[in-house]
Automatic annotation (TrEMBL):
Basic and acidic residues biased stretches: 127-150
Protein name stated in the entry: PAS domain protein
Organism of this sequence: Phaeobacter piscinae
InterPro entries in the record: PAS (IPR000014), PAS-like_dom_sf (IPR035965)
CDD domains documented for this protein: PAS (cd00130)
Region feature (Disordered): 121-150
Residue ranges occupied by any PAS domain in the UniProt entry: 26-108
Amino acid sequence: MNLLGSLLRYSSLPLSLINPEAEELELSFVNPAFEKATGYRAEDVLDRPCPLFDGPAVKQSAISELKIARDRCKRISRTLWNYDASGRPFECLTYIDPITVTPGNIVLLGCHFMLSPELSSSPPLTHTEDEGVADRVSTHGPTGRESERAAELHHLENQKDELLDYARKALLRCLEMRRNTLYSRIDLYFNRHRGNLLGADSADIDAAAMMRDPLLGPRENQA
């Protein structure tokens, strides 16, 4: 998890980790790029209903779909209207993607892209508009700009997929290195133990020493 945490923390993409056990859509981690893009500080959004998913312009049907995907650990993307921390309206493209950190340990990565306001089909929203506004907001660009919006969405998705691909390959390589190191230490133990049985000098790594080894001993789940 330390490797994944470093990748997310230093990424230029606005990223989060979704809490899979919360009743509402809550975040358990956001990186500095998320804070810069939205204006929300980490302490304002972690372990509580996230403001990005809670507002008068947010379609509740989209929120329900995000929750279902979260609960099923399924990939999903939705475009939502909301406000940043300063009250400025923006259109946010949100992705949720599952990442396997270790076998049986899956985290949900959130990517939150602020879309170009000049390609928006909706006028700026205000805090006084009621929830009915959400039903009148289109997620498509105006006539003649659909191709520009499609190109923007394609570019952002490519950025997100490149990060996911890199993260998954790095985690896989980390698991392979840990497994190879584990096998090497087990071989070392049995080779030394066999030498002792044949009358060599006592340099045996006993069972207690094996249990103290961070790789051979029991490890807590750090997810």
